[in-house]
Amino acid sequence: MVSLKTSHLDIAYEDRLIVEDLNISIPEGKITALVGANGSGKSTVLKTMARILQPQSGSVLLNGKSIHKQSTREVAKQLAILPQNPTAPEGLTVYELVSYGRFPHQKGFGGLKSQDRNIVDWAIEATRMGEFSDRALEQLSGGQRQRAWIAMALAQETDILFLDEPTTFLDMAHQLEVLQLLEELNATSNRTIVMVVHDLNHAARYAHYMIAIKQGQAVATGTPEEVVTSPVLRDVFGIEADIVTDPRSGVPLCLPYELYRAASEGKVRKGKNDGPEEASPKVVSFL
């Protein structure tokens, strides 16, 4: 297994400090979800932990060594990342895309060896993309394309898989398809998965561990039951919500009904009648 944590991590864009003194650890063999409002820094944290961004100070420790001081090939053998909205050249087939995942393991300019082809075939089958192996990516549905990219990441044979909002722009059925695939991969191969998730209820349903980020700070960490609470939702998302237990999975469900700012200021709305004013629940977007 591979250990991953941050130590006093500062991340900045030019002169603007986005993340300050971040100290988090990623549980091995679990699914971890990074959640937070838009602009909270969660994708920035993910990209820095995956060695895409360089920190201003502090470090990301991969097996006790700074990830930014290790070679690209060395890191690529230990972790894979699926960025948000990845793109590929037109006409590239699923098999060709997945085969790119073997690049960190190849030497010189030789093509795929027998072992590489076996792993590519396994990754395609594991993501249930066998029937689309020879099809161009642009001919696939959104969910199928996302599964193809996940297959490429699997072909790297890494212990850690990073995903930046893997369900963005997918409809509900394809969102569940991707999340259930990740859940299955974690269960069958004990793979550590770290993902930025936009939907808080999806995070609670599919992650074992959650990290709630606000203004570059981890303000709550732990199981879904420890993170999806009324105080955390007020602090991180600025909402009032009912927390109920999912009758199927037993995890907490968030039912937002009001902005916390409006509730805390005692704002009310008049109804059609002239009776006493009272706040009427309203479902609002909280991400």
What do these coordinates show?
With 287 residues, the chain is of the alpha/beta class. Helices cover 31% and strands 25% of the residues. It is built from 10 helices and 13 strands. It has helices spanning 42-49, 72-76, 94-99, 114-126, 142-155, 172-189, 200-206, 224-227, 230-237, 260-264; strands spanning 4-13, 16-22, 25-26, 31-35, 57-62, 65-66, 79-82, 160-164, 192-196, 209-214, 217-222, 239-245, 252-259. The strands form 3 sheets. Strands 7-8-9-4-10-11 form a 6-stranded mixed beta sheet, sandwiched between helices. Strands 1, 2, 3, 5 and 6 form a 5-stranded antiparallel beta sheet that branches. A hairpin with a 2-residue loop joins strand 1 and strand 2. Helix 4 (114-126) packs antiparallel against helix 5 (142-155) and helix 5 packs parallel to helix 6 (172-189). Mean pLDDT is 89; it is low at 268-287.
Helix content: 25-40%
N-to-C SSE series?
EEEEHEEHEHHHEHEHEEHHEEH
Name the beta content range. 25-35%
Span of the ends, CA to CA: 33 Å
| Main sheet strand line-up | 7-8-9-4-10-11
Mean pLDDT: 89
Largest sheet: 6 strands, mixed
Number of helices: 10
| Beta-strand segment tally | 13
The radius of gyration over CA amounts to 21 Å
Query: How does the helix and strand content classify structurally?
Result: alpha/beta
Characterize the overall form. Answer: globular
Task: Name the poorly predicted regions.
Answer: 268-287
GO molecular function: ATP binding; ATP hydrolysis activity
Region (Disordered): 266-287
Main location: membrane
Membrane topology: Peripheral membrane protein
